[in-house]
Amino acid sequence: MMIGAVLAISVALLVFLSPTAGAQDDGQSINGTLQYKDDSGERIPVEGVEIVLRDAGGGDLGSVVSGADGTFSLELPGAGDYAASIDVESIPAGVSLRNPDKTELTFNVVDGQSKALAFPMAAGEAGTQEAVSQSAIDSLLRLGMVGIIFGLIIAMCSIGLSLIFGTTGLVNFAHGELVTLGALLTYAFNVGLSWPFLLAAPLAIVLTAGLGGLNDRLLWRPLRARSTGLIAMLVISIGLSILVRYFFLWQFGGRRNPFRQYSLQEPLVELGPISLVPRQVVTIFLSIAVLVAVALVLQRTRFGKAMRAVADNRDLASSSGIDVEQVISYVWISGGALAGLGGILYGLDRGINWDMGFDLLLLIFAAVTLGGLGTAYGALVGSLIIGIMVQVSTYWIPAELKSVSALLVLALILLIRPQGILGQKERIG
Amino acid sequence: MDFQSIIVNALQAAVSPEAAIFALAAIGLNIHFGYTGLLNFGQAGFMTMGAYGLAVPVFAFGWPLWTGVIFGILAAVVFALALGAPTLRLRADYLAIVTIAAAEIVRFLVRATSLSDITGGSNGINGFSSDFYDLNPFTESIKFGPFSFLPRTMWAIILGWVLVLLGIGFCYLVVNSPWGRVLKAIREDEDAARALGKNAYSIKMQSLIIGGIFGALAGMMLAISTGSVQPSPQDLGPPKTFFAYAALILGGTARLWGPVVGSIIFIALLQFTDGLIRGAQSAGWIPEWFISGTEVGVMRFILLGVGLMLLMLYRPQGIFGDKREMAFDV
Q1: Do A365 and B97 touch (CB under 8 A)?
Q2: Is the same domain home to A174 and A285?
Q3: What is the pLDDT of residue A9?
Q4: Angle B92-111/B238-251 helices, nearest 10 degrees?
Q5: What is the pLDDT of residues A397-408, one digit of tens each?
Q6: Do A99 and A168 fall into the same domain?
């Protein structure tokens, strides 16, 4: 029905671009060799390491242990998407993954394919090669810089969410899917159709903006007209989020892929311990420019004034002649565009996969609540704090637990200042 | 396509331990959401507390299984206090945001490699449930007509549904007590309840704890029936919470039997569509490029999303619900 039209467009865009392939056949398998080079450059096989295989839905498909020559292989039930994760615990002492964060590979297997998997390994314990040469301040500066970039990306995504909340009261759980959509559409154009990234990205942003607007027009506006309760709408947005997210998984598979361009770059700027590749520099300047533009629109234009008026008091705004529904429509369109851009930048930074938006959503929520629900500037401040917190905390805690610090800050802020850093007291009710 | 076996499988799923797990989780959500109006989106977090509370003492310290039950319930109480303290004075959506985030954080924690001596890391914990299965009186499969249950499954089914019935009995007593009426008063108008001298914050906290304990029981039941705890999204992540919500809303919120009937129908429905898709695949009606063998599992999530939306749009009171008894206005 209403969502039908939104989906129909996405289906049309996605299905024919989908990389999933052909008919069933026997003989799919995975294989690989676990080995590392010792000091003399000789290849030493790694024995007894367990690799666990899962299907696209996360179901366990069994595991395999590398043999004395370091090789492993496992039959697959059919073509499709899989994830293989290496059991870090089973790696013998004195050997470690070259990239300790990369314990899981997601991949697609077409019929009859024997897929080679690589888990690059090195001598020594995880991270020791790098850590030796870096002082504490250098590491913290570097992590802080990564955190600022991450915070700017979160800010892109969270301003839309916050403005939508401010103008309609809806806590939109499906906002993360707009983020994913921006990245996936760019990926489809850039990799699927081999268009240049600089053409694919703007087009994806326009489409995401359009789908954001359509989302409001076809689903949320009729619900508001029916005066559906906010909690009911929240549950509906969760339903929409699950539907769209697993639709992405179905069409794109469970892999994490980079864009065709700009994924491997040499550092452009080197400032002491901080080195930035060109895409990071572009991300910083582009997002600052966009955020300044958003602030100018909010402060200086009639539309921005109208938007703030609606967020402040909907009935008063309506009775002073502001077309509230039109303002909300524009908020959704610009929120969609910002989320799409955020998704593309996030994808540039760490690759694209089907639930990247949902992963980010928890941090977006933390940022928006931290800054003050419903305020655009609060979302910005909250995002930067969350981004920096999450990255810098990895200096002390394992990287796999970095989101924990963000949540602890959130809980603390809610205890001390529940309206958030820039929020107004009456909003928390 | 073998319709008979698809239907038999669906009916068998309706009484499976899985249905009992969802029923327990949904009973907890019914106390939170149905009766008190608390938007807890972290029921999976409470389940994690129960499942790991049960398995960790056996796995890490070699203690008997029954000690795990106590730890599971204690962990859920602590989790509820930690969640409730910063959020229960605030508007409902704050609780929603914090609970969903906290549940994920808990899952990240138990999955962490650095804690794998205690929680088993990403492999989870296996082989802790032998104390329970040693008591199993069934030695061979139980057959009723076309249905057949393994002895282990039968034993887990009995435990699960006994827990569900006890839970329903408890709910019946609690909801019709003076305390239960205060819960509903808070749901309808918190300010009015406060004006009458009720400590809304404390009562909401009690509701969060009690519903959370049901979540923990669901988690323990999950751990016992599968014989393992896995920190995967399917087992203990947000989808689990959303499935339980869908079951609750389908049956009817703020209704005694709503969560149970909802879970039974929901699980049977999921199994039925799963069977239908697989059957249509093997009959060659669904081409491989459209839905591949490994993608059938994804379909149930898409169905969950569509189902949740349609329910809220067209029948938010579910099968047995009463629109006047809803925590949300539609």
Answers
A1: yes
A2: yes
A3: 52
A4: 140
A5: 887 788 888 878
A6: no
Spans in chain B with pLDDT lower than 50:
330
Residue A49 near residue A65 (C-beta atoms within 8 A): yes
Residue A117: count other Cβ atoms within 10 Å of its Cβ.
Answer: 19
Of B90, B96, B289, the CB nearest to A414: B90
Report yes or no on A86 lying in a domain.
Answer: yes
Identify the pLDDT of residue B35: 92
- CB-CB under 8 Å, A418 with B90: yes
Tens of pLDDT, residues A33-45: 787 766 655 677 7
CATH number listed for the domain at residues B3-132+150-325 = 1.10.3470
Distance from CA of B303 to the nearest CA of A (A): 7
A23 and B289 within 8 Å at the Cβ level: the answer is yes
Q: What angle do CA B289, B291, B292 make, to 5 degrees?
A: 75
Residue type at A143 in one-letter notation = L
Indicate whether A229 and A351 sit together in one domain.
yes
Cα–Cα distance between B1 and B11 in angstroms, integer?
Answer: 17
CB contact under 8 A, A241 and B305: yes
Nearest CA in chain B to A414: B86
Domain CATH for A423: 1.10.3470
Q: What is the pLDDT of residues A313-367, one digit of tens each?
A: 888 998 998 999 999 999 999 999 999 999 999 998 888 889 899 889 988 988 9
Q: How far is A105 from chain B (nearest CA, A)?
A: 15
A365–B112 C-beta distance less than 8 A = no
The verdict on a CB contact (< 8 Å) between A238 and B304 is no
CA distances from A53 to A109, A115, B293 (A): 13, 13, 15
Closest by CA to B38, choosing from B107, B78, B98, is B98
Whole-prediction pTM value? 0.79
Please name the residues between 85 and 104 in chain A that touch chain B, using a CB distance below 8 Å: 85, 87-89, 103
Give per-residue pLDDT as tens, B56-99: 999 999 899 999 999 999 999 999 999 998 888 887 778 888 88
**Strand partners for A60:** A54
Q: Residue A424 region, left (φ>0) first, then alpha (ψ -120 to 50), else beta? A: beta
Residues of chain B by 3-state class (helix, strand, coil), percent to 5: 75, 5, 25
Select the residue from B32, B111, B312 to test the A interface by mutation, using most A Cβ atoms within 10 A.
B312
Q: How far apart are CA A263 and CA A244, in angstroms?
A: 27
Judgement on whether residues A205 and A168 belong to the same structural domain of the protein: yes
Nearest chain A CA: its distance from B150 CA (Å) = 21
- Strand pairing report for A29-33 and A114-116: parallel
